[in-house]
Design goal:
Oligomer: single chain
Strand content: under 5%
Shape: globular
Number of strands: 0
Structural class: mainly alpha
Distance between the termini: 11 Å
Largest sheet: none
Mean pLDDT: 89
Low-confidence stretches: none
Helix content: over 70%
Order of helices and strands: HHHHHHHHHHHHHH
Number of helices: 14
């Protein structure tokens, strides 16, 4: 069992070191807001689709396809559980705070944080299943998530829910998977090079975001504690119990728990700015949850690997 925790802890520590470099880059003014916006666009529109397409470069296999469908179902269960738990437990009187905290409890950093860890721990098969989780996340965050953050003025934007890089990458990858089409070397090699940047760039971005916050007040989390506990502990642990009871095991189970135990999604801040919610609170939730996730992900994912 100790080996499982050490393996996960080592990988999480590697990500933390990269986050520290981003923090240092922010403090030394080597990275600025414009640079992070550019990195975010590169990740969203170029790197993430490449990671997904590379993961789907496999001959069609009935077992893989069955597990892919199970991953899609698990992602729906995960988001539904987080929503219900957050709605019950998060009762802040301030509407803007309550909306941000509930959003934080539901939507996690399953792309930028989970993919690097899954790839390091489980390889291309893990990324294959994680892509399904990301597809569900993108559909829900751009439909229900946008509606929830906007409040009374909200509306479902199914165009954005479906036509976004994460979902498009999965669709393209599925076409290759179902047809067992193998991309030529001259195409797959650049895709592979782009995929390799999926670990360092997001970690630098997270580190930079933390560098912009007031570290003296960042650990004053009395008002945010419930949302953080739901996001980092309650939701992934309950999901683990549900999926284990349903018969999920091995790489599939571990991948899904890695995805579900990641910290608050960076989208929280993006939507907070767009809909005039509590921007400082959203940034704090992303940063603090990322710091605490170093411990919680190590314990939860390590335990999952042990029982899987």
């Amino acid at each position: 069992m100790l080996d499982s925790f050490l393996i996960v802890g080592t990988q999480v520590l590697i990500l933390f070191i990269l986050i520290s470099l981003g923090f240092l880059g922010g403090k030394l003014k080597l990275i600025n807001d414009d640079g992070v916006k550019s990195m975010n666009n590169i990740m969203l529109y170029l790197v993430t689709p490449c990671v997904v397409i590379e993961a789907f470069q496999k001959p069609f296999d009935k077992e893989l396809f069955k597990n892919l469908l199970l991953a899609l179902l698990a992602a729906l269960i995960a988001h539904t559980l987080s929503f219900l738990i957050g709605k019950i437990l998060i009762r802040d009187k301030d509407e803007s705070r309550r909306i941000v905290l509930r959003f934080s409890a539901v939507f996690c950093n399953c792309g930028f944080m989970a993919l690097p860890l899954v790839k390091a721990l489980l390889g291309s098969e893990g990324v294959f299943y994680a892509s399904a989780y990301i597809a569900i996340f993108n559909i829900l965050v751009w439909s229900f998530g946008q509606y929830a953050m906007a409040g009374k003025e909200g509306s479902f934007k199914m165009k954005k829910a479906v036509l976004n890089p994460g979902v498009i990458g999965v669709v393209i990858g599925l076409i290759f998977f179902f047809t067992s089409y193998e991309l030529p070397y001259i195409v797959i090699q650049p895709i592979s090079f782009m995929s390799a940047t999926n670990t360092p760039i997001p970690m630098l971005m997270i580190g930079y975001s933390i560098s912009k916050l007031d570290l003296k007040g960042i650990l004053d989390i009395k008002g945010e504690a419930v949302a953080l506990i739901v996001r980092l502990i309650v939701s992934p642990v309950i999901l683990l119990g549900v999926l284990y009871a349903l018969g999920y095991r091995g790489t599939l189970l571990t991948t899904l728990i890695v995805s579900a135990s990641t910290p608050v999604a960076a989208t929280t801040t993006m939507f907070s700015i767009k809909f005039n919610r509590d921007e400082k609170l959203s940034s704090k939730m992303v940063a603090v949850s990322t710091l605490f996730s170093i411990l919680t992900m190590t314990l939860i994912v390590g335990f999952t690997q042990y029982i899987a």
